[in-house]
């Protein structure tokens, strides 16, 4: 096996030309990447090679290129991943091995961070995640807080003001925010589905959003269900084959979450919900507890690596001359 090499990333990244809203300074966020070595379909996938670098290093570099991110931490219970990440000059923290989910692993690290109120969960198998999508999701969380708190449009969001006293008063980044039930607590992202295979694939999670961009439901089933097309063609499979435009009405949920830290820590204390158990989707627990989830369209497509076929697709993309690395000199 060839040696895997990772390089630290320039935080300005390829998106540094995208200047934030001059009326607001967005509080810096911390990205936490939960990573496991064990995987039923792709054992050790966090350390699988993608164009000369391990997959987890690719994710770290993409996340670190987001301008609203001050720190990227890999959270893992496997020493092999810790050693690989640290050897590359990145940060890794050792977590407990008994976590039921990546979100629980995320929370174990987040509770130790006193210098941020915004936590970003980037999946360790998303090596194509867009830094711009991460930035826009962070900004959407902050803007959602401001709107729900009734702040003026031109209010300055002061970095570094989120001290203990401010948290007690319900403030983030020096701003007054609304109670947890009234404000956006999580922001995630979606992409248009282009193929009938993805519509029918239960591993591709579908998201339904309302006209304001708020998530209504997540499912492994094809939702919203195209009833008229199915009645016309007999089955959803026939409908998808007969109407090439039909897959475009579905949205794929991507592996990105931006949390208010308070919401994240409360979320992990709630018991598993009924819908969560049925669909095996954690985000449904948040919806059932009344947390508002804002969903933005991703800036560019990403691929969650679950199979060897996914891995080969990602390798081809990253190796192509058109793939833009998030830092100069790599």
Molecular structure report:
The N terminus is likely disordered. This protein starts with 28 loop residues before the first strand and ends in an 11-residue tail after the last helix. It has one domain: Spore Coat Polysaccharide Biosynthesis Protein SpsA, Chain A. It has a 7-stranded mixed beta sheet with strand order 5-4-1-6-12-9-13, sandwiched between helices. A two-stranded antiparallel sheet has the order 2-3. The longest helix has 18 residues. The chain is globular. The protein contains 12 helices and 13 strands. The protein has 330 residues and is an alpha/beta fold. 31% of the residues lie in helices and 20% in strands. A hairpin with a 2-residue loop joins strand 7 and strand 8.
What does the secondary structure layout of this molecule look like, with pairings?
Blueprint: E1 29-35, E2 49-50, E3 53-54, H1 55-64, E4 69-76, H2 79-87, E5 91-94, H3 102-110, E6 118-122, H4 131-148, H5 164-168, E7 171-172, E8 175-176, E9 184-192, H6 196-200, E10 206-209, E11 215-219, H7 227-233, H8 236-242, E12 251-260, H9 261-267, H10 274-279, H11 283-288, E13 292-297, H12 308-319
Parallel strand pairs: 1-4, 1-6, 4-5, 9-13
Antiparallel strand pairs: 2-3, 6-12, 7-8, 9-12, 10-11
Helix pairs in contact: 7-8
